[in-house]
Amino acid sequence: MSLLLSFFRFKNQTLILTNTICPELLSEILKEIRCKKLFKCILKEELPCLFEEKVLTGHIDIISCIALLDKTHLASGSEYIDKSIKIWKLSSGDCIKSLYGHTHTITSLMKLNKNQLASGCDDYSIKVWNFQTGICLFTLKGHKQIGIMLAKLNDTQFVSSCSDKTIKIWDFTNGYCIKTLTDNISEFTIIIRLNKTRIATGNFLERTIQIWDITNGICLKTFDKSIEEDKIRNLVRINNKLLASSSYTSIKIWDLSTGKCLKTIDDNTYYISSLIKLSKKLLSTGSHKTIKLFDFLTGTCLKTFSEHKIYITCLVKLNKAQILIGSNDIQIWDI
Fold first, then answer.
1. Exposed end of the chain (fewer CB within 10 Å): N or C?
2. Selection from 218, 222, 149, 157 nearest residue 183 by Cα
3. Residue 154 backbone class (left: φ over 0; alpha: ψ -120 to 50; beta: rest)
4. Where does residue 94 rank: exposed (0-12), middle (13-18), buried (19+ CB within 10 A)?
5. From residue 61, how far is each of 108, 186, 328 by CA, in Å?
6. Do the beta carbons of residue 245 and residue 261 sit within 8 Å?
7. Residue 48: exposed, middle, or buried by beta-carbon count in 10 A (0-12, 13-18, 19+)?
8. Phi-psi bin for 122: left (phi > 0), alpha (psi -120 to 50), beta?
9. Is 27 a member of any domain?
10. Position 19 pLDDT exceeds 60
């Protein structure tokens, strides 16, 4: 039996250490963890540990979105009871700043540059913040409905969509709306950047995926509508050739050049809330309260991670080996 099992207390398969441990014994413990990968380790009292699991708490409502700001900081937005944006320091798990000004659910967060963050909200507004100081630089108004989504285009512009059947292009250096697209756009449009001039949109109600040239506002391609049985919830750019989408119950892999569906992956989930790319794989989560890892080339489910306590709202890639999970708190998980 491992020495670890003889000396230390456990909770939910997690080894809990404190700074009362002598340095020599601590060294042996960490060596054993590294070699055998036996347990997740929470090291109390700020002792350094590469295997530390963190839980970030502070919002008083469900977390609706997360954005990674750099390797050591992230931003989170919450639903309408809370209405705040919080900036977190990953190394300590501390909330170092709270941004207030929105009056409803924060629907989207996006890093613009090393100092600025954009937020979309169900109060029909978009705000540009200096997240270092906590100051709101601009409040952008023009959308008339809820569900604002954001995608950065380049060093000075981003694009937004919502359920008012418009796509808007903004200059975030001055807060001006440069262009509004209104043709062939349905309600609840999901939006992602493909490159500096093109975006992909997933139309929630009409169940279609479209490719747009932002420079002239032209829809270049509409994917095969008959293939998508359910409402589109997420879009993920896999590479220059492939796009992934998720509906309520399945994930589809699309050829960007032809608009044809190459593969359908059944997730056996009533509702897929989040889909992200991790290396050459896809991670999904939803109403099943688990996280599933898929090989998008074969469609095989490689792993199902243990059930979370409550419904997971969002996933964000932290690095090659870790993800951020949003629900009623923020957790950092090893993948």
1. N
2. 218
3. beta
4. exposed
5. 16, 30, 7
6. no
7. exposed
8. alpha
9. yes
10. no
Domain extent, residue 7, equals 3-43
**Amino acid letter for position 136:** C
Is residue 11 situated within a structural domain?
yes
Give how many domains the chain has, as a whole number: 1
Q: What's the CA gap between 45 and 39, in Å, rounded?
A: 19
Amino acid letter for position 95: C
Residue 260 CB neighbours (<10 A): 11
**Residue 19 counted as domain residue:** yes
Instruction: Determine the longest span between alpha carbons in the chain, in angstroms.
Output: 68
Between strands 85-89 and 73-78, the pairing is antiparallel
pLDDT at 161 over 70: yes
pTM here?
0.80
Please check whether residue 180 lies inside any domain of the structure.
Answer: no
Distance CA 332, CA 180 (A): 38
Q: Specify whether the CB–CB gap between 236 and 197 falls below 8 A.
A: no
CA 133, CA 139: separation in Å to the nearest integer?
16
Q: How confident is the model at residue 230 (pLDDT cuts 50, 70, 90)?
A: low
* Rounded Cα–Cα distance for residues 322 and 303 (Å): 15
Q: Rounded to an integer, what distance in angstroms lies between the CA atom of residue 316 and that of residue 85?
A: 16
Q: Which two tokens stand for residue 28?
A: 């042996």
Give dist(CA 335, CA 333) in Å, integer.
6
Q: Which two tokens stand for residue 105?
A: 């659910």
Residue 223 makes CB contacts below 8 A (sequence gap 6+) with: 208, 209, 210, 254, 259, 260, 261
DSSP-derived 3-state class of residue 192: strand
- Which amino acid type is present at position 81? I
Compute the distance between CA of residue 51 and CA of residue 122 in angstroms, rounded to an integer: 38
Rounded-to-integer distance, Cα 26 and Cα 28, Å: 5
CB 137 within 8 A of CB 129: yes
- Please give the span between the terminal C-alpha atoms of the chain, in angstroms, as a whole number: 26
